[in-house]
């Protein structure tokens, strides 16, 4: 489907009747009517029926240009033929075994070939599990249990890394003006809050001070150097080098959480920021559209999980870990995410952000686009976004973001609820131009109604 077809159903409403009635049924059997808060929005999301390349077709038959890509996990879009062939091939032999398969060796080798710091890997089934295992690994290696993480950064649904995931201006400072450890879920024990040191994403000096004070008590610093919830902005080189130095100085395990940001280069995100992590967590694109997670690192550190000489320092396993379907899909997907494909997709991302940024500037609207490689996010407001706090929307900006997302849906473009997106390899300049033109038009219209939202 090309640009003219994208425009053809502009007059239709964002969510069709079949999706509305599916949602009414789901509300009866699922709390909130959705399995994932992140894929839910009011009045209700469209329900997917199937996908084709960069398009998703909902159960009302609407074709949406998919920038959500199952939360950035589908680097080749939907139903990518080589991945389907690989999965079909694997599936006909059986779906899971209480034995290792050669497919797990192939995917671990593929990761090691991309980045020497991923010399060895253990697979699991989600990014959350990978982060959980990496932190346990860091504890086993250091004999310490506290960790440090950056304010507002998401690393999965695990008590310790959920600390300060969503603080607000009312509670985000402690009595010294440093980021406070803020409870995300009701009932999280105070001990968890005490054991998590929270770092500011865009204040290297304060990071250095906090780490100098807390460093020797830390098992790990976990960092995503291009964190989506912290604004989808690259971390500064200064901050990256502050944490790298602190980890070296105080014997802290540096965990790079590249669950999303692995896509930023052939080798992953860390080398782009001068980071030399001890452990790297990945998921999403390395599973080719099937569930996956992975912890990787140099053999001497990954030995913490090695059971072959008796009980390991840290156990890691799971019934469906390294299941052959995820392994086959992931291997094929990575093989097709070659250097030229990475470069092409990153150039398309540059083009997209340039066009959107210019469109906003020409229109004089107080909105910005951030991101890197094939990732982007739109923010409303006059200020520069450098991290979690500057990305934190006022209530008016939050409402506008919701309206922009819905208006984009009306334009047949699916963004995530916070107006972020990821490109996939089936996209070309045609789709990228469509996304940019529509976003600029929509933002101009929505912000035009709000006098404070122009520059
Ligand atoms: C940086 C990061 N880490 C971890 C996770 C958790 O991954 P999963 O949803 O596969 O559990 C996510 C999910 O979006 C993520 O973005």
What is this structure's SSE topology?
Elements: H1 3-8, H2 17-29, E1 48-52, E2 55-58, E3 63-66, H3 69-72, H4 81-91, H5 102-114, E4 120-124, H6 127-142, E5 146-150, H7 190-194, E6 196-199, H8 204-214, E7 218-223, H9 237-250, E8 253-257, E9 279-283, E10 293-297, H10 299-302, H11 324-336, H12 339-363, E11 367-372, E12 375-380, H13 388-391, H14 395-410, E13 413-414, E14 420-422, H15 429-448
Pyridoxal-5'-phosphate binds next to helix 6.
Which terms would index this structure?
single chain; 455 residues; alpha/beta; Aspartate Aminotransferase, domain 1; Aspartate Aminotransferase, domain 2; 4-stranded mixed β-sheet; 38% helix; 14% strand; binds pyridoxal-5'-phosphate
Describe this structure in words.
It is built from 15 helices and 14 strands. The protein folds into two domains: 188 residues, Aspartate Aminotransferase, domain 1; 256 residues, Aspartate Aminotransferase, domain 2 (3-Layer(aba) Sandwich), CATH 3.40.640. α12 packs parallel to α15. It starts with a helix and ends in a 7-residue tail after the last helix. The strands form three sheets. The protein has a seven-stranded mixed beta sheet, with helices on both faces. A four-stranded mixed beta sheet has the order 1-2-3-13. A three-stranded antiparallel beta sheet has the order 11-12-14. By secondary structure, it is of the alpha/beta class. It is 38% helix and 14% strand. The N terminus is likely disordered.
């Amino acid at each position: 489907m090309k640009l003219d077809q994208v425009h053809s159903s502009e007059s239709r409403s964002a969510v069709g009747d079949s999706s509305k009635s599916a949602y009414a049924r789901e509300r009866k059997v699922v709390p909130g009517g959705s399995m994932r808060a992140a894929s839910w929005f009011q009045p209700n999301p469209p329900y997917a029926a199937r996908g084709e390349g960069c398009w998703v077709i909902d159960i009302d038959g609407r074709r949406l240009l998919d920038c959500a890509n199952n939360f950035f996990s589908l680097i080749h879009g939907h139903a990518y033929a080589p991945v389907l062939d690989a999965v079909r091939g694997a599936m006909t032999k059986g779906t899971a075994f209480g034995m290792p398969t050669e497919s797990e060796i192939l995917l671990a080798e593929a990761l090691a070939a991309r980045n020497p710091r991923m010399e060895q890997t253990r697979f699991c089934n989600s990014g959350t599990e990978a982060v959980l295992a990496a932190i346990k690994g860091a504890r086993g290696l250091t004999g310490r249990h506290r960790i440090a993480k950056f304010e507002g950064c998401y690393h999965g649904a695990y008590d310790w890394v959920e600390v300060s995931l969503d603080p607000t201006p009312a509670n985000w400072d402690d009595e010294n003006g440093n980021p406070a450890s803020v409870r995300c879920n009701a009932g999280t024990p105070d001990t968890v809050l005490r054991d998590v040191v929270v770092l500011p994403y865009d204040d290297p000096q304060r990071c250095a001070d906090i780490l100098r004070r807390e460093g020797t008590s830390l098992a790990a610093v976990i960092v995503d150097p291009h964190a989506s919830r912290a604004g989808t902005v690259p971390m500064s080189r200064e901050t990256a080098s502050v944490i790298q130095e602190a980890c070296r100085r105080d014997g802290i395990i540096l965990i790079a959480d590249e669950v999303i940001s692995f896509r930023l280069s052939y080798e992953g995100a860390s080398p782009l920021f001068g980071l030399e992590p001890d452990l790297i967590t990945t998921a999403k694109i390395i599973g080719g559209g099937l569930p996956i997670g992975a912890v990787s690192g140099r053999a001497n550190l990954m030995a913490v999980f090695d059971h072959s000489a008796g009980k390991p320092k840290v156990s890691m396993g799971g019934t469906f870990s390294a299941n052959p379907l995820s392994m086959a899909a992931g291997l094929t997907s990575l093989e097709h995410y070659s250097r030229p494909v990475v470069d092409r997709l990153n150039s398309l991302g540059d083009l997209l952000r340039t066009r959107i940024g210019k469109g906003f500037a020409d229109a004089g609207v107080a909105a910005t686009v951030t991101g890197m490689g094939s990732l982007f996010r739109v923010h409303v407001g006059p200020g520069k976004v450098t991290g979690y706090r500057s990305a934190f929307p006022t209530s008016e900006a939050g409402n506008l973001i919701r309206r922009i997302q819905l208006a984009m849906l009306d334009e047949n473009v699916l963004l995530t609820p916070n107006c972020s997106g990821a490109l996939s390899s089936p996209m070309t300049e045609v789709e990228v131009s469509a996304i940019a033109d529509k976003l600029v038009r929509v933002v101009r219209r929505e912000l035009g109604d709000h006098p404070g939202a122009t520059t």
